[in-house]
Design brief:
CATH class: Mainly Beta
Structural class: mainly beta
Number of helices: 0
Radius of gyration: 16 Å
Strand order of the largest sheet: 1-2-3-4
Order of helices and strands: EEEEEEEEEEEEEEE
Shape: globular
Low-confidence stretches: 18-25, 28-37
CATH topology: Lipocalin
Largest sheet: 4 strands, antiparallel
Number of strands: 15
Strand content: over 45%
Mean pLDDT: 82
């Protein structure tokens, strides 16, 4: 079995692309006409640096993607495709299968080696924190209330602010 990235959608924009190493990431716009016909057109597309396993993240008007399964990320304006930052290396991460996630005004990228990058959702690459757990990760983080859950190869982690 082979896995691939899911499409994401928000406010009539769908980010979608076929699963292949040469895939392009497309932002599509859907318009309904007379409630019967649908017209779809490519609003913008990127042909390099798109994900293979991790799904993209559409958050706060920005589309975040990993390059293939690597620790290299790019961020685009979701409406226009204008790059905010492209091919930014996350030096401490080694490989990415987990999809990026967002909660509490932060964007999270988790590497297979247990290193996670916390980004401010911004037009600039801004990393206020890098964290490490002694485990291997392929699963995307899940959020419930103020808690983040991470399923490692060895353990299940719940991370929350201390009271």
């Amino acid at each position: 079995m082979n896995v691939g990235p899911l499409s994401v959608t928000r406010k009539g924009i769908v980010s979608s692309g076929p699963q292949s190493l040469s895939a392009s990431r497309r932002a599509l716009s859907k318009t309904l006409v007379a409630s019967k016909a649908q017209y779809v057109f490519v609003r913008w597309q990127v042909k390099e640096g798109t994900p293979y396993v991790p799904s993209p993240l559409l958050y706060d008007g920005r589309l975040y993607v990993c390059k293939v399964n690597q620790e290299v990320i790019s961020c685009y304006d979701a409406k226009t495709g204008k790059p905010h930052f492209v091919n930014q290396k996350m030096d401490e991460i080694k490989g990415v299968y987990a999809s990026p996630t967002a909660a509490g005004g932060r964007v999270y990228f988790v590497g297979r080696n247990g290193v996670s990058y916390v980004l401010k959702p911004s037009d600039k690459y801004d990393v206020p924190a890098v964290n490490t757990l002694d485990d291997k990760f392929d699963c995307s983080p899940a959020f419930v209330g103020d808690e983040m859950y991470l399923k490692g190869k060895q353990n299940l982690y719940c991370i929350a602010a201390s009271n």
